[in-house]
From TrEMBL:
Residues 45-64 are annotated as: Disordered. GO terms for molecular function: actin binding; tropomyosin binding. It is found in: Cytoplasm, Cytoskeleton. The lineage of its organism: Eukaryota, Metazoa, Chordata, Craniata, Vertebrata. GO terms for biological process: actin filament organization; muscle contraction; myofibril assembly; pointed-end actin filament capping. The gene is LOC114042966. This is Tropomodulin 4.
Length: 345
């Protein structure tokens, strides 16, 4: 047995509990202080877990904020400004940098025949552009110039080399016209079950209130003629989603529902998905691009809903998880096959 092992043998039968019981409160506090595990490099931890507590000094009295501010202000005024080591006079020192001229090495110098030198000297910018395209130097021109040069046998783009840094000019695309739907008239027609009203489109109506959409959903419960209901980008949240869920439980004529690009959370998603299970007429549901990702549980519920609802043949949502995505794809494919077989029979 080595001497080190013999040294350790005398500590084998030590009673740690007896030693701890014999320590004074001050010694126990010091032991606890020494056994604290700190991680000073981890900036995500609070200060108490990065450095031991060193504030054992007892307070001298209650905090007087006004007196402290006056002391700091007086100290700042009495402190003299430090003189600059080199005072600034505005004088510019040194010589301005001049880019040295690079001499072309002899091995990089290219000498052309006199006829080619003369032709290149007289070539216009458009002709130089076509020559660059033929030689494969496409970095000297824009994409439009390059494809114009290689797709035609003659010079058709007269912009020239100097237009390389200029962007291509595109025709301005006019803004999408505002939604022409008259909300008040549409609400009355839905409430009166107008047989000529088959589509309710509220897309991109930023000024429509949630209460108005909820009133429309309540009117849709007994409507038997509307086939499509769309409220894309209407700032709708969970209250609207709950109203839609109530509508789906009673409506038996709606076939297409689009609630994309809104502020619906996972709670609203769950309400709509559970209501879709009780609806046998809805064939298309789009609910992508919400303000927040609904979560894994909602994506699993989407896949389960598609598996239990053979009527849904079009579903608009971009899954982030592979499992629900594969299940949803199989379910939609199966639903479309069932629809095709029903049409054949």
């Amino acid at each position: 047995m080595s001497s080190y092992q013999k040294e350790l043998e005398k500590y084998r039968d030590i009673d740690e509990d007896e030693i701890l019981r014999s320590l004074s409160p001050e010694e126990l506090e010091q032991l606890d202080y020494e056994l604290q595990e700190m991680d000073p490099e981890n900036m995500l931890l609070p200060a108490g877990l990065r450095q031991r507590d060193q504030t054992k000094k007892s307070p001298t009295g209650p905090l007087d904020r006004e007196a402290l501010m006056q002391h700091l202000e007086r100290q700042a005024l009495e402190t003299k400004e430090r003189d600059d080591l080199v005072p600034f006079t505005g004088e510019k020192k040194g010589k301005p940098f001049i880019q040295p001229k690079r001499e072309i090495p002899a091995e990089e110098q290219i000498t052309l025949e006199p006829e080619l030198e003369e032709a290149l000297a007289k070539a216009t910018d458009a002709e130089m552009c076509d020559i660059a395209a033929i030689l494969g130097m496409y970095t000297l021109m824009s994409n439009k110039q390059y494809y114009d040069a290689i797709c035609s046998g003659e010079i058709c783009n007269t912009e020239g080399i100097t237009s390389v840094v200029q962007p291509d000019k595109y025709k301005p695309v006019p803004d999408e016209p505002p939604n022409p739907t008259d909300v008040e008239e549409t609400l009355k027609r839905v409430q009166n079950n107008d047989q000529e009203l088959e589509e309710v489109n509220l897309n991109n109506m930023q000024d429509i209130t949630a209460s108005t959409i909820i009133e429309l959903c309540q009117a849709m419960k007994g409507n038997t003629h509307v086939r499509s209901f769309s409220l894309v980008a209407t700032r709708s949240g969970d209250p609207v989603a709950n109203a839609i869920a109530e509508m789906l439980r009673e409506n038996r004529s709606l076939q297409s529902l689009n609630i994309e690009s809104n502020f619906i959370s996972s709670t609203g998603f769950m309400a709509v998905l559970k209501a879709v299970r009780e609806n046998a007429t809805l064939t298309e549901l789009r609910m992508d691009n919400q303000r927040h990702w609904p979560g894994d549980a909602v994506e699993m519920e989407m896949a389960a809903m598609l598996e239990h609802c053979p009527a849904i043949v079009r579903f608009g949502y971009h899954f982030t998880q592979q499992g629900p995505r594969a299940r949803a794809a199989r379910a939609v494919t199966r639903n479309n096959e069932l629809r095709r077989q029903q049409k054949k029979t």
